[in-house]
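Run log, item B.
One chain of 595 residues. Sequence copied directly from the ordering sheet:
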Amino acid sequence: MSWLKKKLILTRSQRSTYLRLISYLKPYLGRLFAAIACMSISSLLAVLPPWLLKNIVDDVLIQKNLFLLHFLALGIVLIYLCKAVFSYGQTYLMGWVGQRVIMDIRVQLYDHMQKMSLRYLYKSRIGDLISRITNDVMTLQNLVTNVVIDLVVQSVTFVAVIIFLLALNWRLALLTFVVLPLTGYVLNAASKKLRIVGYEIQEELGRVVAIAQEALSAIRIVRSFATEDEELDKFKNQNVSNFRALMHGMQIHAVLEGAVEVILIGALALILWIGGREVVRGRSTPGELIAFIGYLGLLVQPVRVLSKVVSGLQRGLAAADRIFEVLNISTEVRPPRYPIVLEDVKGMIDFEDIYFAYEDELWILRGINLHIEPGEKVAIVGRTGAGKSTLVDLIPRFYDPDRGSIKIDGYDVRQLDLKALRKHIGIVPQDPVLLKGSIAYNIAYGCPWATHEDIVRAAWQAGILDFIKSLPDGFDTEIGERGVTLSGGQRQRIAIARAIVRNPRILIMDEATSSLDAAMEQHIQESMQRAMEGRTSLVIAHRLSTVRNADRIIVLEGGKIVEEGDHDALLKQNGVYAELYSLQMGERSSSAGHG
């Protein structure tokens, strides 16, 4: 009973994949039907020559009819001329439909990945996701174009050949049909195996891409720790796994093709023996036997190609399964049905009884209640893992809380238009990621309306204007991917300029100086003070020396607010903040003494 249930589940899964793929064809049904019509006509024209060959043997060679010879010779040329026209139509139309469908799927997949939960993205290997956009989509492209063409053309050819075989000699045709169920059984058994192997091949290829992407993204770390050989071994081993999966698939395909060919050739030999006896006995003409054998030869081709189609179809469906697996992952942060667009944001923020967990019931934040006035500068401090970054990530809705609500100017952020909300928030991350392009492009990223004056003003506020002017190309200077051609302090200041060029009412600084030395930290702090002027600002700080000038300091411990006040008041409480501060000051004194 459980075996039957498993079989039914598999069938439903396959049916779901088929139907979902077909749904992408709906916008292009006109061209699809035109392509199918061209395929059908081309296939029917391809099966006419053996019938003409019958007439050439019986009526021309035996009856000596020269007029019919001229007519049949011209007919063959015209048939293949028409076939060439319709073959062009099928190739162009089906290629157009296939490429449009693949483009739609690739764009939808990329768009969905952009909106996917950060919880899922952080746990996933980015290389594997990229592999689904590239390798899996390319495999699916082969399915939608080449495999579909072969499937339609060879199916029409197969049916047409069967009809001609019955018309020529129904007794020999029935004998041929005895062999077809055996061929069908072989194809069915192989298709199930190929579907599993196809999925395995795509998975292994995804891991190859993931390993390469991870190593190249962390190339400085790899070289720093001299682990090139270890990374190469890892890449080699994964390639070996991919090679084994590919060879397994090739083995199955080779066995399938060979088995089908042996079955069909055996049948052909049997037909030739029986049909030859009938010609000798006068029950059939030589032309009929030659035409019958010619059609059997044509029958071999569809069955052989269909065996390849089964392989391509199963690999394509395995790729589709991997693509739909990603598309089926729901986006955690969903836009409201009737979004509210805040035009004039004051910057008041309220956290009301916030609970949040990345995993079920493993709370990162517990019962957070916090009110921040417009224009207030609030620092959030605490030990590693206290929930500082998670707390501020809830403001731009990178996540939604499991319980409670975050409000901007009295509106729950889940009611607000997501893009409009984020345009009012500037974020400076701990590790500022810059994009390949000019400095001006990076500062104005996400702000197409920003003028050159806006970019210059933001650069001045971030304290990076003088450096930019000293460059030969100024704001047009190209920087490498991730900003590797700039120093840490320069990247940080450009990130600050990028955050404030849109003139946000809320500014979030997530440990913006933690990776800088003390001298550079002082310069960045000055840039941060200018950037925060007149804005509601939240500063996450590991170095407590950077938050002494904050209007209010929030101390998190175990996901809860345990202390609150300004720098002097918290030191007098002699609690968690005072302990952290004394530890850091002690470390600095010790470091200075050793220096």
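Observations after the first pass:
- The two ends are 76 Å apart (CA to CA).
- Residues 1-10, 587-595 have pLDDT under 50 and may be disordered.
Flagged for discussion on Thursday.
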